[in-house]
Amino acid sequence: MTENSFWTCPPQAQVRGSGQYTVTLVLPPFPADAAAFPPNDPEAAREFAASFGTVDTVLEYGGERNISDGFALTTRDDLEWIQVGVWGNVIGIADPALADEGNSWPVLEQVGNLAKRFPGAKIVGAATVDCGEVHEEAAWVVPGCEPVHSEGWPDGDGLPPWTLEGDPEAVLEACGVTARMARDADVAYDPEDPAATYWGGLGELVLGARHPWRRPRLRTSAFRVRHTHAATDLMEEVWIPG
């Protein structure tokens, strides 16, 4: 273990691959319009970061940045940075510890934890990691519906079968997402072939007007964190070449 962290590799260790990894909560009420988001609340963002299940300790505040800036993953040090925004009744976090290769299901775990903390919230988590093949995981919690979890690799020889639990069509209907809307967004759900669906895009439709991640000028708070031991172990497995 390196000083003040659970890493077993040096700070300059190279990261492989790329990805996207977010969890978004919308607390009731759920407005249907796409009104402007209120400004980010840095103090509330820090509190949420410190309480998130992958985070052991918040080490440093890196100021505010546009949500579209993200963090380039080049070395191990880059994996310690997360983005958090609290915009009124919408909360979003981008954390590379949510990425997985099908072994741990961190998105499902964190969405489930948040559902217990925020009963009645609409929660959508999505993560992809591309290290030659793309692994995708998504989890949705929508009031009145059975939770949905989808996870796997594209179809191919030697790859595990796709995992799908819950009823995506029931969630989409409850959120007012029509089949035409899904087709127009090129994320239509095919129950016969769930591996062919872009689950992250479908989750954006579930969030509807309160989806923050395509609002490039929306501001977030950046934090360098020490992730938990389990989250650090998973990141080394996923992001650091063996």
Order of neighbouring strands in the sheet with most strands = 2-9-3-4-1-5-6-7-8
Order of helices and strands: EHEEEHEEEEHHHEH
On the 0 to 100 scale, the average pLDDT is 93
SSE-based structural type? alpha+beta
Extended strand count: 9
Radius of gyration: 17 Å
Overview of the molecule:
The chain has 242 residues and is an alpha+beta fold. Helices cover 23% and strands 28% of the residues. The protein is built from six helices and nine strands; from the N terminus they run βαβββαββββαααβα. The chain has helices at 42-51, 106-117, 168-174, 179-184, 199-207, 229-239, and strands spanning 18-26, 55-66, 81-87, 90-94, 122-130, 134-141, 148-152, 163-165, 219-227. The chain has a nine-stranded antiparallel beta sheet, with helices on both faces. The longest helix is centred in the middle third of the chain and has 12 residues, at 106-117. The two termini are 16 Å apart. The relative contact order is 0.25.
In short:
The protein is an alpha+beta fold. The protein contains six helices and nine strands, in the order βαβββαββββαααβα.
What labels describe this entry?
242 residues, single chain, globular, alpha+beta, 28% strand, nine-stranded antiparallel sheet
Explain the layout of strands and helices.
Layout: E1 18-26, H1 42-51, E2 55-66, E3 81-87, E4 90-94, H2 106-117, E5 122-130, E6 134-141, E7 148-152, E8 163-165, H3 168-174, H4 179-184, H5 199-207, E9 219-227, H6 229-239
Antiparallel strand pairs: 1-4, 1-5, 2-9, 3-4, 3-9, 5-6, 6-7, 7-8
